[in-house]
Amino acid sequence: MGSCKFSMFCLLYLVIVLFVEVSGEEMSAEIMKDRVSLLSFKKGIVSDPGKALESWNSPGVHVCNWTGVKCNDGGDQVVQLDLSGRSLHGTIGPSLANLSSLSVLDLSKNFFEGHIPEELGNLLQLTQLSLSWNFLQGEIPDTLGLLHQLNYLDLGTNRLVGDIPSPLFCNNSSSSLAYIDLSNNSITGEIPLKNECQLTNLRFLLLWSNRLEGKIPEALGNSSKLEWLDLESNMLTGELPLEIIRKMPQLQFLYLSYNDFVSHDGNTNLEPLFASLVNSSNFKELELAGNNLGGEIPSIIGDLSTKVVQIHLEENLIYGSIPPDISNIVNLTLLNLSSNLLNGTIPPELCMMRKLERVFLSNNSLSGEIPSALGDLPHLGLLDLSKNKFSGSIPDSFANLSQLRRLLLYENQLSGTIPPSLGKCVNLEILDLSHNKISGIIPSEVAGLRSLKIYLNLSSNHLEGPLPLELSKMDMVLAVDLSLNSLSGTIPPQLGSCIALESLNLSSNILEGPLPSSIGQLPYLKEFDVSSNRLSGEIPESFEASSTLKELNVSFNKFTGNISRKGAFSSLTMESFQGNNGLCGSIKGMPNCKKKHNFHLVILPILLSLFAIPVICVFGYPLVRRSKFKRQLSVFNGENLEDEEKDKEESKYPKVSYRQLIEATGGFSPSSLIGSGRFGHVYKGILQDNTRIAVKVLNSKTAEEIKGSFKRECQILKRTRHRNLIKIITICSRPDFKALVLPLMSNGSLERHLYPSHGCSPGLDLLQLVNVCTDVAEGLAYLHHYSPVKVVHCDLKPSNILLDDDMTALVADFGIAKLVKEVDESSVASNESMSYSSTDGLLCGSVGYIAPEYGMGKRASTEGDVFSFGVLMLEIVAGRRPTDVLFQDGSSLHEWIKRHYPNGLEPIVEQAIVRYMPKYNIQMPPFDCNKIIWHDVILELIELGLLCTQYSPSTRPTMLDVAIEMGRLKQYLSDPSSYLIQEASLKGDALV
Fold it and tell me: Which of its termini does the chain have fewer beta carbons within 10 Å around, N or C?
């Protein structure tokens, strides 16, 4: 069978050599061999949704001009094949091994399956090999150890199994390897590095999230240039490798979390490890979480490099107090010591670390009062002191924490009242004070915190008084728990304004009165518990009719009435209703209701109906007929007037002749084609005055369907003027031909840069992408808030974002946009906007970017554009289209990222950092201090993307809010120091 394949290959090669000519010249034998090899590889591609390999099918295109292919200067040898991020499906064929001069092979970020061909070991000139982010299976071939020129190897994020082949790490020329990434697979065995092996040039070793076992080999100490060592989430054992680390003076990142390492001297001494890191002058991040490490935090921790920004020691057996010397690490932004055995108090010196942004001290035995000086940390965004023994009251100084987003103080011994000053924490998203001894009322200032987006938990305290009406202002909060207190009074119907609420727990209080029906009408309510109160009356029908309610507990109250097994009640049991003697119905265990024979209630409606029907027939029909006739006449005349007005508007555009467009585009030749869509094609061209244009020609075969689309786009482009919106040059309109003439954007669409094709740059870096998102946000904010007529775009996606010569982004393609009337917000809901031009019957947008409410028949709205923008940001971070197979497990892109939020985002963030850092000669990210800034910005993009893609339209921010936030990120990323100085001056703080 193998000889047969070989014979067919030779025959195909011979035929092509004899008959194929390109540009009138015969190809060299070498390039012909490479061409045959590439075509053979292409046969293993079963799906090419982006048509990345379309040029490979064109007989007139030289192999050196194929997408992803790069030849040497002489054009007679293929030296690079880069098809990363093309969404290709299929297998990697062994024919690639015949590309004997290949130096770079990058097939990452696709959907390749099957095994890695062992024949790749024949590519002796290969210096870079990347097959990451695929679905490759099986073992890593031993033959890859024959690649003596290899300096960059990335097989991460696949389904690889088996041991790491020893020749890969240990061969005669393995010292050339500088970057090794085998992370996020299922690789087993030990790290095969022997003492005689010299990986002297190794700078990055990433083996995280595998099943590796054994000790870290001592031979790794020979890699004195190592900057990044990531072995977390394996099953490695032994003492912490201080002797190895001591030999790595350039080490910057050490990740050993979630293994089975122990400290020295019988797991009692951490000092040797920290001593080994002192000489690493550029050290930045230390992660040792989840290792069951014992001992105290030594004072020598204060001697670590001042460049250290993150320390993770959580989930260990560390005891003793927090050393004051830790304050010497003046640039520390994250400190995580949670889930240990620490005791004592929080040292005052900790409050002097003014760069701190996230502090995790939960689940220890820390005691004393919470230092009020913590309120002086200007950048503190998260403070978790939960599950300790803190006493005293909550400091008023927390009101100064303007950046605070999460405050977790639950399961302590705190007393006093909730300080009203917490209401000044205008960015607070989570507030959890549960399981303490806090008394008094719920301050209206805290109850009215509209910034709370995730949850409010004040349960298991000694709170009293009524439920504040200000709670109704929390229209973005997902969960509220006020249970196990002494709250009294009635449940205010205004709680029905908390429209994003999914869980509400008011149980075990002394609430009385009826249950408001408005709560049952909450559109996303899943869990509701009011058990053990003194509520009375009937349970409103709105709870039974709820389409989202899954868990209900109204037990031990004074409710009365009939309970059916319909709607939301169909899956409930008697446990949800017990302790209410006045309830009856068909729930198992509930007494049956007694039937009442109220004949007069039946007879009265019948008599009324018999009397009313003749009256309606005599007097109502003429009125209805006359009203209907007038309405029809009005609508008919209005449509005619509207069409006439549109025709007049179209006539105001400067015209360009059909012949001029033919000349400009070479007769709309295929070589001028730069894009295709549902309604037509886009061609590039040059007018007689040397203006470079893009001509959007609408498909005549669907003329009636696109007539409205053409007019809408003309209307919108005529009415809007903004630096981030595409400008119309002119139109060409004939009965059989309609085209928009737009300026040509030299850098193409954002999609081409996110998923590069031949002829494009290799992608954008993070700063460029933030600039693009800022431009798009400002353009949409103009459409929504400042345009003469409010506009909803309806189809925001990467292909509709164009980049000019200066990489400024312009929003384009308004084909299904809507011109929205300015209406009184009190009379029309925000997601029910009225419009001049209806898109009824159209699902506004493209698959993956469409807001969920559109699928339920809601009209196009500005909130829908915000949703699409959020998907765009998450797409940029994830590096995947929202329609990719990765998310076809029943979840969308934003749901997939939300499942990882907040504790599982690190792999996504790290991959984004690698993807959007500038590539150097061996494609290795320059992980310096800027990496910390990029990390923060990517996290901000994720959080903003999740806010924009919330299910409830009213809980999403406006595009004006988004534009302001994007502007802030742009400033921070481009000039961090001046941004921080400006922020500090605005707050009146002095930078330390």
Answer: N
Task: Please count the helices (runs of H) and the strands (runs of E) in the chain.
Answer: 21, 54
Counting the structural domains of the chain, the total is: 3
665: tokens are 């585009």
Residues 653-669: pLDDT tens digits? 455 677 888 888 887 77
Nearest CA to 814 out of 704, 708, 706, 712 is that of 712
Return phi, psi of residue 496, to 5°: -65, -10
Nearest Cα residue to 742 out of 703, 722, 714, 773: 714
**3-state SS string over 183-236?**
CCCEEEECCCCCCCCCCCCCCEEECCCCEEEECCCHHHHHCCCCCEEECCCCEE
3-state secondary structure 376-400: HCCCCCEEECCCCEEEECCCHHHHH
In a domain, 559, yes or no: yes
Same domain, 976 and 888: yes
Q: How confident is the model at residue 228 (pLDDT cuts 50, 70, 90)?
A: very high
Whether residue 972 is found in the same domain as residue 901? yes
Query: How do residues 312-344 score in pLDDT, each as one tens digit?
Result: 999 999 999 999 999 999 999 999 999 999 999
The residue to which tokens 């050290």 are assigned: 283
Catalytic residue flag (residue 73): no
The boundaries of the domain holding residue 695 are: 649-744
Amino acid 695 reads V
Distance, in Å, from the CA atom of 384 to the CA atom of 902, rounded to the nearest integer, reads 14
The total of other beta-carbon atoms located within 10 Å of residue 93's CB is 18
Residue at which a domain ends, from 716, 744, 772: 744
For the domain that residue 575 is a member of, what is the CATH number? 3.80.10.10
User: Does residue 154 contact residue 133 with C-beta atoms inside 8 Å?
Assistant: no
Question: CA dihedral defined by 902, 934, 929, 251, rounded to 10 degrees?
Answer: 60
CATH number at residue 922: 1.10.510.10
721/753 same-domain check: no
Tell me, what's the pLDDT at 700? 61
> How far are the Cα atoms of 567, 572, 590 from residue 586, in angstroms, in the given order?
13, 11, 7
Same domain? For 761 and 732 the reply is no
Asked whether residue 195 is assigned to any structural domain, the reply reads no
CB atoms within 10 A of CB 7: 10
Residue that the structure tokens 């094609």 belong to? 681
pLDDT reported for residue 987: 41
Instruction: Single out the residue of 743, 747, 749 nearest to residue 692, CA to CA.
Output: 743
Q: Which of 230, 432, 775, 795 is catalytic?
A: 795
Euclidean distance between CA atoms 808 and 788, whole angstroms: 23
| 964, two tokens | 């302001």
Nearest in space to 711 (alpha carbons), one of 772, 809, 644, 767: 644
Q: What is the 3-state secondary structure (H, E, C) of 78-113?
A: EEEEECCCCCCEEECCHHHHHCCCCCEEECCCCEEE
524 lies in the same domain as 584: yes
Same domain, 737 and 797: no
d(CA 165, CA 141): 7
Beta bridge partners of 162: 187
Whether residue 990 has pLDDT greater than 90: no
Cα 697 to chain centroid, rounded: 35
Domain for residue 358, yes or no?
no
d(CA 567, CA 548) in angstroms, rounded, equals: 10
Confidence of residue 716 (pLDDT cuts 50, 70, 90): low
**Short-list 458, 516, 509, 454, CA closest to 491:** 516
Give, in degrees to the nearest 5, the angle at Cα 72 between 71 and 76: 75
Domain boundary among the residues 697, 721, 744 is at 744
Indicate whether 787 and 936 sit together in one domain. yes
872/965 same-domain check:
yes
pLDDT digits (tens, 9 = 90+) for 392-429: 999 999 999 988 999 999 999 999 999 999 998 888 98
